[in-house]
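Re-run with default settings, no changes from the original entry. Doing this only to confirm the output is reproducible before filing.
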Amino acid sequence: MQVVRAIFDGKEIKPIEPIKRRGKTEVLVVFPDDIIKIIPEKARVLLRGRGKGEMLNEKLLKSRAEDISIEGN
């Protein structure tokens, strides 16, 4: 299955990415309920403080150490 982003102008669906298919192909068109675009700067602000008290850095470092030990064997 290939997913391609496109724009619907009310009459036609216009792909904004290349389509890697030839000939006639059945497609499924999905219209998202809400399209929310969040710029990266705003995303950082929204996520700031979400993992408080979960010791995420320690968990990441422990997981990476385990990966390194497995890769070293």
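The mean pLDDT is 82. The longest strand covers residues 6-8.
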